[in-house]
Amino acid sequence: MSKILIIGAGGQIGTELVLELRKLKGNEAVIAADVKDNCPPLLLNGPYVKIDALNREDVRNYIIQMKSKKSIC
Questions:
Q1: DSSP 4-72
Q2: 12 is in which domain, residue-wise?
Q3: Which one of 19, 46, 47, 53 is CB 3.0 to 4.6 Å from 27, fit for a cystine?
Q4: Number of domains the chain is built from
């Protein structure tokens, strides 16, 4: 199963996008990401990761990590 990573999920548009995609694809398929330490309450029904979109290396490493987990399964 493919995963969808939404960076900026803590903002208005990001939150709405995550909620709608989770309805369509399932809670575990949509990963919310933002710079906030804690997951916004509206997004608690699925995975959340703290990522700074301006830190290219962190974003890259997270995607590589998720791809390697997929190939193991």
A1: EEEETTTSHHHHHHHHHHHHHH-GGGEEEEESSSS--GGGTTS-EEE--TT-HHHHHHHHHHHHHHHHH
A2: 4-72
A3: 46
A4: 1
